Amino acid sequence: MRKGLALDYSAPADERAQWQLERPLDRALAPLARALALKTSLSETPEGAEEACVLAIERARDAKNPAIRRDYLAKCVDRLSPLDLVPPPAGPDAPDRAGAQLAARRRTSLWAEIARVAWAGRLDDVVRAAAPFVAAADWHPAVDPEMVIAQAEIAYLEVEACTAALARDGLTVAAPLVPTPAAVDARGVREPAAGEAVLQTVLCDALARGMARALAAGQPWLAINGATLAWNTFLPLMLRGRCVGCRAIAAARIIYAALPRLPAPALLACATHFASC
Alpha-carbon distance 148 to 24, whole Å? Predict the structure, then answer.
């Protein structure tokens, strides 16, 4: 990592303009180097809540015991959730874009990594606590498409987490006829999904949001992944027969709402899947 950061290189002008950085690759290398230093050094100490969470996430990643992993990640959620949000730049021409972008990217990446490490241990409650903070950041694709892709990926993890929470209570996915959104705090951050009605609603919203974010980032393959996830998630509902037909229609309506901008082959494939039901 140190060698990479010490490397003297000149980035192309268009890349420097896109990221508003003289060394665009440092946006990925610098956080990794700091995480490695915190993890391996006996003398390095975290500076502030964000760095404490970086270290806790690395320890959670290495933890073999699910209870220890949960403890590390829960502490991260407790440390980060009360902090003020760090909004991304409003657009490519926003003033002081570079500084604001790096700060917002650092915060969004922390929440996204909490969700990823949590789901690797199937800790669906931690995923449901972290995912709303990833979704709350208003990332513009022209500012940072990587963060928009991360938002799509975490939306899909939230779908999986809601499905797991429903299954643990002996419930199956069934698109709500009357949506019950999760409460939103004063900052505009959604509360973690809990309770059958809210879980069903958030699950459907996350599917549509993930595909929309994938398309906004210009990643049709990621949107197709979302359509596949939708198909797999709602397949048990589709196979239960006409008695739940209205719920199947509600599910299809939510999914179709996110599909119009998909490439024609993907749209045709999704339509064929649902028509076959």
Answer: 17
As a whole number of angstroms, the distance between CA 155 and CA 115 comes to: 10
Q: Which two tokens stand for residue 11?
A: 């980035």
Lowest mean per-residue pLDDT among 4-13, 89-98, 144-153, 217-226:
4-13
CA 15 distance to own-chain centroid: 25
- Tell me the domain boundaries of the chain: 46-275
The 10 Å Cβ neighbour count of residue 125 is 19
pLDDT in tens, 200-212: 989 988 988 998 8
Q: Are 256 and 266 in contact (CB under 8 A)?
A: no
Long-range Cβ contacts of 256-261 (<8 Å, 24+ apart): 257/208, 258/207, 258/208, 258/209, 258/211, 258/212, 258/215, 258/223, 258/226, 259/211, 259/227, 261/215
The yes-or-no verdict on residue 215 having pLDDT over 90 is no
Taking only the tens place, the pLDDT of each residue in 172-182 is 887 777 788 89
Contact 81, 132 (CB under 8 A): no
Range with lowest mean pLDDT among 49-53, 88-92, 108-112, 259-263: 259-263
Phi/psi of residue 184, nearest 5 degrees: -120, 135
